[in-house]
Amino acid sequence: MRGALYIDGFNLYHAVDDLGVPHYKWCNFWKLAELISKGQARSITRVVFCTAYFKGDHGKRVRHEALVNAQAIVGVETKLGHTTTEPMKCKRHSCGHRWDQPREKETDINLSLSLFADACDDVFDVAFLLTADTDQAATISFFRNRFPDKRIVNVIPPGRMPSQHLANLAHGKIRMTANHLDTCALPEMVAKDGFKTIYRPAEYAPPPGWVHPDDRP
């Protein structure tokens, strides 16, 4: 069985951010696909990471670009959407505070289209859809009707409650844990011939005494 992983980038990011362990964000998504697919796929043929760059915070943009470039080195394809801002106002009458709330656009569509395009091209036998977004219920339902000979499994981001709606539609579900992220950590330096060497952002450094999975006994 050939497997492929499709990642809702913002859904995963916010789940990982809530864990409060910065080095979990420096994750090898190809290795993650191999780990979570054990027992359901014999090989991974494709990993797609759907995300978008936010404007306004240079440091976050630099870290985000480093992650995207590191993923390219390990074989992950990134599909970039875009972001907009929505004017917001505090609901308390005495406050009056206004701000621009960033909103991501196109990532959910890119996720669905990547899944369907690869199914049409017979890239995989089983798809792993990493999201807790119930809007993707339509994606799973359409997929099952259109590709009855293929399977789709919902992968739930760490720390998130599984959606019963998604679970009922998918062929199965997998709950990600912090251990998945720790086991799939990228090295401090990610390098490959033909690519620019990428270094882990300082903000994603592991705690003192942490040992990379490749160096553990």
Based on the model shown, name its key terms.
Rossmann fold; single chain; alpha/beta; 25% strand; 6-stranded parallel sheet
Architecture (CATH level 2) name: 3-Layer(aba) Sandwich
What is the CA-CA span between the terminal residues?
30 Å
| Percentage of residues assigned to helices | 25-40%
What is the CATH T-level topology? Rossmann fold
CATH C-level class: Alpha Beta
Count all strands and give the number: 10
Identify low-pLDDT runs. Answer: none
User: What percent strand?
Assistant: 25-35%
Largest sheet, strands/sense/barrel: 6 strands, parallel
Reading side by side through the largest sheet, how are the strands ordered?
3-2-1-6-7-8
Structural Rg: 18 Å
CATH homologous superfamily designation: 5'-nuclease
Backbone structural class: alpha/beta
Counted by DSSP, the helix tally is 7
**Backbone shape:** globular
Average the pLDDT over all residues and give the rounded result: 92
Please give the domain count.
1
Helix and strand element order: EHHEHEEEHEHEHEHEE
